[in-house]
Amino acid sequence: MSDRREFRDLATPEEARAVVEGLDIDPGTEAVPLADARDRVLAERVDATLDVPGFDRASMDGYAVRARDTFGAGEATPETLELAGTVHAGEEPDVTVDAGTAAEISTGAVMPDGADAVVMVERTTETDDGVEIRTAVTPGEHVMLAGADIAAGARALGPGTHLTPREIGLLAALGVDEVEVQSRPRVGIVSTGDELVRPGDELDSAAGQIYDVNSDTIAAGVEDAGGEPVLYPHAGDDFEAMEELLHEAADECDLVLSSGSTSASAVDVIYRVIEERGDLRLHGVAVKPGKPMLVGTIGESAYVGLPGYPVSALTIFRTFVAPVIRDAAGLPEPRTATVAGEMAVDERYSEGRLRYMPVGLVDDGEGATLVYPVDKGSGATTSLVDADGTVAVQPDTEVLPAGRTVEVTLFSPDVRVPALFGVGEDDPLWNRLLDRIEAPRYLPTGTADGLRRLRDGVPDVAVVAGPTADEEPGEELGGWTREWGLAVAPDSDVADLATLVDGDYRFVNRDGGSGLRRSFDAELERVADDRGASVAAVTDAIDGYELTAEATESPARKVAAGEADAGLSLGATAATLGLEFVPLGTERVRVLANRDRTEKESVERLRRLLGELDDLAAGIEGFEG
Known about the structure:
By secondary structure, this protein is α/β, with parallel strands linked by helices. The chain has 16 helices and 37 strands. The strands form nine sheets. Strands 29, 30, 31, 32, 33, 34, 35, 36 and 37 form a nine-stranded mixed β-sheet that branches.
């Protein structure tokens, strides 16, 4: 009988937030040197113990005078005062300003005895008789009096003040060299799962290993929220090892975060650690992504178990955990930036739980902002950077229709709409073009998807390859040709397409939405016609025709790894990987612009760049502008 843990009673988002907020992660306070106090939060009031400035000082270069001696002075009626001496900043004055005299003075210098105002140097002229004053001044003019900035005994900064460079400057002016601040909560981060490997270590993809994305991602989020992340060694799915690691983290940290091993699976053991050694307060929350969430305690430390998929883990962290870390660190909630936009396409949803839908933004060229879903699934890390924010889709929503105005909560206030948004074929020359455009976003989802989205009016441009359709959406801005064919191992006997069809060779194809696949299928139709056979008969003869890969280089990489005899490939890819190449033809790559955005600045910039293809194509095998 399975011991599979089911999510029978999912907490509402409001209930989950209340449970997480009820965790005690108060780290206390600590004294830190002023040099280390930036971005910290004061734990107690700081009062001024001296006047700032501590003396009356000149606020500009000029002459220190008795104001009464300048009354009546003007451009046509100047007053000449005898020069009594000079006062420099940083030294004690050795002159006295008596009636009818003036002292030259520098900005920031101590006002000499007798003087009560400063005449700016631009309104004076030195003569053989002294200094000619061409304007009248009043007592205190161009003088900062002692304590004018802040007076001794005054309240300088209060508890809870976020110390930015401005506050650091004030504390330095007061002579403060150490301040009491809120301690940063120490947050232990433990990634679980036998399949995880730390970035930098060798990866065995054949064994199902993947790089540990969550540890560094969540650590960056903890630091951004004002916490001190502590990364612990990777834990597998062994109960005893995980228990030991979690207890070590709990002994050393205010909060422990784990990722993975929280879903309803017999191999997931982490919930048992909490149940047996701590207090499990919540298991599962009705949100998407992020349902498998644990909240509880381990000993004296608070604990939150995040889902294993990176998008889910980050969503749960940002929504529920980051606010309590900020609160414990004394930091205010960050300024939340929101943008209103119109749904570019229909989006259907009927799962009955709150959904934080990742979305991207695009400018329609006329000042309106369009919103499109970016959802490759919780396991797709590129969703973290392809999206600009989220739209909260309520549980009772069945469809968000195109044209509906929605509110997008941006991932950060500095998110900006991409200057150019494109979708379509992955291509080396196109990647070079993108490098010359400021702030682009491109989704290499293939020719078919690029055409589909362009028909829907979402992207600015689509990059498509392969045979040209009778009627394609968009205006062609330009294009180039690229050689395609079969990447084969150096010792392979595959010499042409007929050899592949008639022989016993393992083949890796591209997915049906790619331009390469379209060109390949067109060539197979020609072979079928020449043989008087059906296309199905020809494709059935190829071992692996149905074995497809989504990435452009994947088939060739399978060949390089010894897992296939031939793979559908660009000539440039085969050359890069050191493989033999059997050319089967050339195909044209076309850049199609959304007809409503041909005058958009970034599209115009792209049109100009397409005139420089010969230079851009230099060094790419098989490409011609």
